[in-house]
Amino acid sequence: MSGESRECLGASESGASRPAPAGERPAKGPRERTEHAPETHQTDRLRFLEAAAQRITGGIDLDGTLRELRQAAIPAFADMIVVHLRHPFPPREEPAAEPLVLRLHSLGQGLEGSVTRSPPRAAERPHLTVNGRFVEVLLARGAVFGDTPEIAPAVAELLAPAASMPTTPSPGRRLIIAPLYGRQLLLGTVALVRGADRPPFATDDLLVASQLAVHTASGVDRTTPHGYEASVADALQLTMLPPSLPETTGVRLASRYLPTADTSQAGGDWYDAIPLPGNRVALVVGDVMGHSITSAAIMGQLRTTVQTLARLDLPPEEVLYHLDEQARRLGSDHMATCLYAVYDPISQRLQVADAGHPPPVLLHPGGSAEVLQAPPGAPIGVGGVPFETVEMPAPTGATLLLYTDGLVESRNMDVLTGVEQLRARLEAAAARLESPPLDVLCDAVLTLLEPDARADDVALIAARFEGFPQDNVAYWFLSPQPQTAGRARQLTRRALHRWGLGSMIDATELMVSEVVTNAVRYASRPIALRLLRTETLRCEVGDDSPQLPRMRHARTGDEGGRGLFLVDHLAQRWGATMLSTGKVVWFEQEMPDDYCPKGPDAP
Description:
Elements: H1 3-6, H2 30-35, H3 42-56, H4 62-73, E1 80-86, E2 100-109, E3 128-130, H5 133-139, E4 144-145, H6 152-158, E5 175-182, E6 185-193, H7 203-223, H8 227-239, E7 251-258, E8 268-276, E9 280-288, H9 293-311, H10 316-329, E10 336-344, E11 349-355, E12 361-363, E13 369-371, E14 376-377, E15 389-393, E16 399-403, H11 415-432, H12 438-445, E17 458-465, E18 473-478, H13 484-498, H14 505-522, E19 527-533, E20 536-543, H15 563-570, E21 573-579, E22 582-590
Parallel strand pairs: 11-14
Antiparallel strand pairs: 1-2, 1-6, 2-3, 4-5, 5-6, 7-17, 8-9, 9-10, 10-11, 11-15, 12-13, 12-16, 16-17, 18-19, 19-20, 20-22, 21-22
Helix pairs in contact: 3-4, 3-7, 4-7, 8-9, 9-10, 11-12, 13-14, 14-15
């Protein structure tokens, strides 16, 4: 290709003569049509820098900023870009101390389709240590050619990651090294390379490279926490995750959290398990987009909101709807994905609603794994998009895995491939060990990604469904009539006799009578009475009235107002939960010390 068609910036400096007459110029090929590079005029140079600056400053995180740099500069200005960042990032405004340790972040070559973030076998490459005159050159903030004496000894090591790339980089005037300098802090270096079939860089290109580095460094500094800030973000992230998982009847739980491989980047991944009325449990996993203290703080707010909504016992789609509303009220540009599932061990059913999150995977008791298909709604924070709940069987012995995209997406793997590999990994673990323990299962799936290739946090929660023996449940629907309290006492007495709990009959009958009487007073539809025999005896009375009962001091002449005082005195604990269809009042009692369970399904 002719020298005239290869001119990029500062043609007068690259050895090209005056342009050929129009009739002698060769037709433009694909490369000329795609570069959109400035030619010989200062106006073209300024237009290029303006367009590049708009792209680079539009990156919302570290990876996005460097991706925009690559796409703006290749092939318009260079054929290859190699980016090294300091490791670890120091506290802000701390003077650069020797030696500087640089870690390869990314390299790119060619058009957008071949630009890559992770170089081959990056995990095996040692970090680059620079000192002496090279550090002085970087601290001077200006871009330099590859044949600058102070940096010449480090050029080969700096470009070593690109040795296997199709375009062989060469030093000298085909290489420019520019420091990434943000707010008094050296963040790393960017190396810009031109191939052998293209004119070398000109002197004026140093100014262009410096400007590209300035905009890139600003984005890197803005999106990456440093030193103390990073430690604060990490601490904030960890303290907002649940310190332990609840112990619930009918399901066993295990969880894992791994920070991103870039330890200076705090994320917004979270998980949770929330007990619900009726021995159900809500399983939640979410991911706030971005890596910063802000992401971690928003994660904490969303997690608290989910806990509040869950305890209202709203349907999964309603939880996501109100979570989306709350996220928009926060006034943040951050969005989040979230998966909300509710497991009922008594009915052995699972409800799932998805807000733009990767699908859960269910490992069946027989060892086969299935990717559950839930309609993917828009991410939290988008607004105006409805969510949908799907219900499916949750067989006893099955294991449900909820996770964030850091487990199934990396620099070398897309989400769909990662989900399929996760499904295969679960099946392989089940093939080696029948019904593998949850901790073993979690550790097995965490080996899915190479540590150096993981660019995001990983949060996961696993739930083993154990179900609830039907012999341990007594359930009735009663009409809201004056004689209903008496009927409830009779049914309770029979159930406790069948379970061998005769010593608990008197106290339980009294409390059931009081709670049912209160429900009859306000209900307009049938009342639900349910007794559950687990490590405790639990009674639940549900009705369609949203009015929650409150203890109050009864006056001397009052006929009512003392029922909840009796419940509070006799029960180990009690409470009332508002539902979307009304409320549930419940109380629990300890089993007698000499209790001997009856029946094959006894707890």
